[in-house]
Design a protein that fits this description.
By secondary structure, this protein is α/β, with parallel strands linked by helices. It is built from ten helices and nine strands. Strands 1, 2, 3, 4, 5, 6, 7, 8 and 9 form a nine-stranded mixed sheet that branches. Strand 5, helix 8 and strand 6 form a beta-alpha-beta unit.
Length: 289
């Protein structure tokens, strides 16, 4: 077999999918658009198939392109792991990581475990807080890296996008609501940006809320809603079949994004390596991590 898959070209193809096209991929890779296009054209010529549709309104990748991206991510992961394992200059240092409760029950623990095995000289200290607290801790340098939620419109250019979710107003299916009275509201604590947005937004909709439960745990909010204690704002991943999503009388919530953000003063190689590991793993396993 004479064909060979070029590692740089595979990285380029993955970047095109990750960033939604050649323009943004070229910015991320610090290459010209013509250089990115040339790498993909060489791949297509070598494999004798089309990888990009190149048609307005069509999916970005062809069926062959999507199939190759799946192989490419596995190849790149093994390639990077081999380089790291055989490196003569292993990473060393300390990382202060912050994350929200929602991400602690995800595959993040597995990702951290793999990172620590690959880099035994890097110490990772983790703390769980609300997103607003993590933002403040990043700003003042208390932590180096955060895996957190934020409204999608607040995503920064340097953030690593993981996945999107939707916020939903929910109640128990058999719960009755009287919109002429303040609605009983189940909320995360005062540092929750859901709550801050909700309290401001309902005023413009002619609705009032009365907080009847504050709980930092998503499990506690879910249990309270299912028990019929009131309404809540929950990410779509926590909405259960026992809940009813409210689409009328209440303002539509903004979209929510899960992202990795580095502190402005935290640009060490270990921090950058962990951010890249989380980003790569999230692309490989998708939203349900």
């Amino acid at each position: 077999m004479g064909q060979r898959l070029d590692i740089d070209a595979l990285q380029t193809l993955c970047a095109i999918e990750d960033f939604g096209g050649i323009t943004r991929a070229s910015e991320y890779l610090t290459l010209s658009q013509s250089a990115v296009s040339h790498k993909i054209k060489r791949l297509e010529t070598g494999l004798d198939c089309s990888l990009l549709t190149r048609r307005p309104g069509a999916p970005l990748l062809t069926q062959d392109g999507a199939q190759l991206v799946g192989f490419a991510r596995r190849i790149l992961s093994l390639h990077d792991e081999a380089l790291l394992s055989l490196s003569k200059r292993p990473l060393a240092g300390k990382i202060k990581l912050g994350m929200t409760e929602d991400t602690t029950s995800s595959d993040l623990s597995r990702i951290l475990g793999r990172f620590v095995r690959l880099h035994p000289n890097v110490s990772v200290r983790t703390q769980v807080r609300q997103s607003l607290e993590l933002e403040e801790s990043l700003e003042i340098g208390e932590i180096d890296l955060a895996v957190m939620q934020l409204f999608t419109h607040r995503l920064q250019g340097s953030d690593v996008h993981l996945y999107d979710d939707r916020l939903c107003w929910v109640k128990a299916r058999d719960a009755e609501l009287d919109f002429n009275q303040p609605l009983p509201f189940l909320a995360y604590d005062a540092q929750c940006f859901y709550k801050q947005w909700a309290m401001d937004a309902v005023q413009n909709a002619g609705v009032s809320l009365e907080t009847v439960l504050e709980c930092a745990s998503s499990a506690g909010i879910v249990s309270g809603v299912q028990a019929g204690l009131g309404v809540a704002l929950l990410p779509g991943q926590h909405v259960t079949s026992e809940m009813e999503v409210l689409s009328e009388r209440l303002p539509s919530p903004p979209g929510v994004t899960f992202a990795v953000r580095q502190g402005r003063k935290s640009r060490s190689k270990p921090v950058a390596a962990l951010a890249e590991e989380i980003s790569r793993a999230s692309r490989d396993i998708g939203k349900s991590w």
